[in-house]
Structure formats: structure tokens, C-alpha cells
Amino acid sequence: MTAAEGDDDVLVLRSVVKSFGSTRAVDGIDLTVQAGSFYGIVGPNGAGKTTTLSMIAGLLSPDRGSIRVGGVDFAADPHAAKQMMGVLPDRLRTFDRLTGRQLLYYYGVLRGLRPAVVESRTADLARAFDLTEALGRVVSDYSAGMAKKVMLAGAMIHSPRLLVLDEPFEAVDPVSSAVILDILSTYVAHGGTVILSSHGMDLVERVCSRVAVIVAGQVLAEGSIEEVRGELTLEQRFVELAGGLSDVEGLEWLHTFSG
């Protein structure tokens, strides 16, 4: 552990770089996330948010730099690092021909839990996420909100220290969003840590304690919500950092309307 790292830092990224061919998707990112925090990552499409979260989750390996989870160097002991995390990736891909109950059982035993523990926790999670009646149905029949909830339940079943969530509220109805947010807030209040990406600036501003704005693979601003937004709203500050509004000159023809 370096002098810059604290005992309560559950996630530390230092000089992390990732390229795809000639495109540098992540360009020397440093992040420090403390335990018991709700940490937001925002940025325009293609900014490197998903690539960053994928490296934190162990789905991609960085070309350079280091990632530590709970004091464990990811490169040195990826199994131990992954054991401390629950992951909800963007663009849900899962075994959707399984029932909800079968999927959660699979998640649980994959994490090394005993079958009786998996069954007990499945019942608890289903009640919390309002999925009890849906457990017997195949996941392919779920709505987008229900699919997101069952996958988040699967990410939490082994009681991880850190949740890595890529767009957890995308395509989710307001009722499901409220349920998910309530569960995550309680999890953080009891010492868990959430790092999430979102396009919903209002939501990030409302629930996150700290935020990083990533543009073109670099962190352009990082700190508490108040520090990053200054006198603006978070959305206004984000637009400012991301390069401002698009240029609409040349679209005058659009206002003439056809016949």
C-alpha cells in the first residue's frame, strides 16, 4: 500500500491505460474510492466509462497501471479481488433461458456458497426486489426492469464489499428504479461501496457522494458533487467539461418544414 492510499480505500486505480488498436480508450486514469461511498462515473458516449468499469470488474486487463480492490492487487491475485466484488455489466447478457430462481442459484454456487445458503438468500433478495412471484418464470420473459433487478440480486448474493454497476438504471421503470435505489442506499449505509456509471445526472447528483467526469479516457474533474459542479448543476458542469453543446449551424433547412 502506498502512502497515498488509506486503509478505508476499497478501490484504487493508478495510471490505468487501455487501448484498442490505435484508439486509447482509457488514458492514464487515477481513481480512489472509499468504503461506504456511492461513487459516480459520468461522461459522454465513448468516453471510456464502460472500459474503466470492465477493468475494475476484471472483464478486461489494463495495458498499463494498477488496480487494487480492498488492498489486493488485481494483477497479483485476481481471484481474491473478484471475490470482493459484485458486477452488473452494461448491455445485459445472461442465461435468460433459466428461471429467476435457477439464475440466482447459479450465481450463488458459482461464488462458493452452500446450496442452503443460496436458497435462503434467494428468498431474501426476491422479497427485497419484489421478484418472489417471478422466480419461477424464465428470465427471457422478464421486463427490462425485472431483468436488471434479478441480475443485481445475483451480483449481491455473496455479500460483496464493492458493487460495480454499469448503467444500473438504464431502461428501468420508475418503480423498479426506486426499489433498486433503496436497496443500494441501505447497502452503502451499512458499509458497502457502490461505483456506478450513469447518464442520469439528476440521479448521480442526488445519490452519489463523489463523482468523476471522464472525457476521452481521462478524468477531467473528480471530487464531491459540490466540488465538481461548483455554482452550476452537475449537468451544466458536465456539458461544459464535455465540450459544450453541439453546433446546430447548417440545420436552418430543418425549420422550413416540408409541404
From TrEMBL:
<dbReference type="InterPro" id="IPR050763">
    <property type="entry name" value="ABC_transporter_ATP-binding"/>
</dbReference>
<dbReference type="GO" id="GO:0005886">
    <property type="term" value="C:plasma membrane"/>
</dbReference>
<keyword id="KW-0067">ATP-binding</keyword>
<dbReference type="GO" id="GO:0046677">
    <property type="term" value="P:response to antibiotic"/>
</dbReference>
<dbReference type="InterPro" id="IPR017871">
    <property type="entry name" value="ABC_transporter-like_CS"/>
</dbReference>
<dbReference type="InterPro" id="IPR003439">
    <property type="entry name" value="ABC_transporter-like_ATP-bd"/>
</dbReference>
<keyword id="KW-0547">Nucleotide-binding</keyword>
<dbReference type="InterPro" id="IPR003593">
    <property type="entry name" value="AAA+_ATPase"/>
</dbReference>
<dbReference type="GO" id="GO:0016887">
    <property type="term" value="F:ATP hydrolysis activity"/>
</dbReference>
<keyword id="KW-0046">Antibiotic resistance</keyword>
<dbReference type="GO" id="GO:0005524">
    <property type="term" value="F:ATP binding"/>
</dbReference>
<dbReference type="InterPro" id="IPR027417">
    <property type="entry name" value="P-loop_NTPase"/>
</dbReference>
<keyword id="KW-0813">Transport</keyword>
<protein>
    <submittedName>
        <fullName>ABC transporter ATP-binding protein</fullName>
    </submittedName>
</protein>
<dbReference type="Pfam" id="PF00005">
    <property type="entry name" value="ABC_tran"/>
</dbReference>
<feature type="domain" description="ABC transporter">
    <location>
        <begin position="11"/>
        <end position="241"/>
    </location>
</feature>
